[in-house]
Amino acid sequence: MSDVIASPTTRRKALEKGVDLDARARELGRTTLGPEDLVVARPTSAAPAGDTSYWDVDHGAYGSVTQEPMSRFAQVAARNLGAANTLIPQVTHHDRADMTAIEALRKAWKAEAPAQGVRLTALAFHVMALARTLREFPRFNASLSADGKSLVLKDYVHIGIAVDTPHGLMVPVIRDADRKGLWEISREISDLAGRAQARKIAPDEMGGASMTISNLGGVGGIGFTPIVNPPELAILGITRTEIVTLWEGDTPRPVPMVPLDLSYDHRVINGADAARFMARLVTLIATPRFMMI
After folding, report:
1. Any alpha helices (H) in the chain, and if so which ranges?
2. Could you give the 3-state DSSP secondary structure of residue 192?
3. Active-site residue among 93, 94, 126, 266?
4. Which residues in the chain are classed under CATH 3.30.559.10?
5. Could you give the dihedral angle defined by the CA atoms of residues 43, 45, 49 and 55, in that order, rounded to the nearest 10 degrees?
6. pLDDT beyond 80 at 201
7. What is the tens place of the pLDDT at every residue in 28-58?
8. Fold for domain 90-292?
9. pLDDT recorded at residue 45
């Protein structure tokens, strides 16, 4: 008689899958098995795309559950994110930037914003700063060829804006962001975000970005690791601005600092490249007059 301890559900699934419980128990070095222990590693690493065996678990065996179908849009996004995270050797560089000057400009121009038909947000400044930094660092404004043997260097700067919507994450794109002023960028952000929420973004408005911004500043957090969205080589994450105490000699000074997280494809971009890129981006955010010229 078998010494393996397993629920009736586990034994039934083992029978269906053709798994020898005694052999599996010896392989794992224990006598108690659950449904999740019935997944046997494949003999090769080339598991077919879409293989779901690791998630084939009877969750109902552990308690009451309900099932909610994922939308087609969410399923496509999940596959793309999974593939990107698997295939790209990704590294994230963390930094922060002084928002004092930007917040002063937003306050000074607040009265003008209604005449421009927009609400001037910090995101518009971030788009402008990133666009100019990409112009100065063309290796970041590139894509790796499908065979991994060459870089496609782009003579345009398009910035993707990740928008959280009820039907999933959408990334509409601001075209030629380096050639546009602050008010025009603000209007485009408002328009694209609004139409994304209403699911009125056309497919050709969501492709071809040089880099994407994932902005969680309105939600919170002190940093995160955004996943690079291929064929882009990097993505910029932004979280909530916080007051940080900086010291000027013996004098403390409260400064609004925004956390910035740059994830990049290490096949093309190395750590020193990323550090220099971020140093320039931080400088532009801290001194926005340099990018208004």
Report:
1. 8-17, 21-28, 72-87, 100-108, 113-116, 122-136, 182-197, 271-286, 289-292
2. helix
3. 266
4. 90-292
5. 70
6. yes
7. 777 888 887 887 654 444 444 455 566 778 8
8. Chloramphenicol Acetyltransferase (3.30.559)
9. 45
Place of tokens 């596959």: 79
Establish whether the linkage from the previous residue to 231 is cis, with ω within 30° of 0.
yes
Residue 145 sits at the vertex; the CA angle it makes with 163 and 196, to the nearest 5 degrees, is: 15
For helices 271-286 and 122-136, the axis angle rounded to 10 degrees is 130
For residue 159, give the 3-state DSSP assignment: strand
At 92, which amino acid appears?
A: T
Over 70: is that where the pLDDT of 91 sits? Answer: yes
- In tens, the pLDDT along 172-190 reads 999 999 999 999 999 999 9
Q: How far apart are CA 279 and CA 94, in angstroms?
A: 11
Whole-prediction pTM value?
0.79
Has 266 been annotated as catalytic? yes
Mapped onto helix, strand or coil, the DSSP state of residue 56 is coil
- CA distances to 96, 169, 177, 255 from 287, rounded to whole Å, are 14, 31, 19, 14
Cα distance between residue 92 and residue 275, in whole Å: 10
Mean pLDDT for 221-245 is 96
Tokens at residue 65, please?
């559950």
Distance CA 227, CA 90 (A): 8
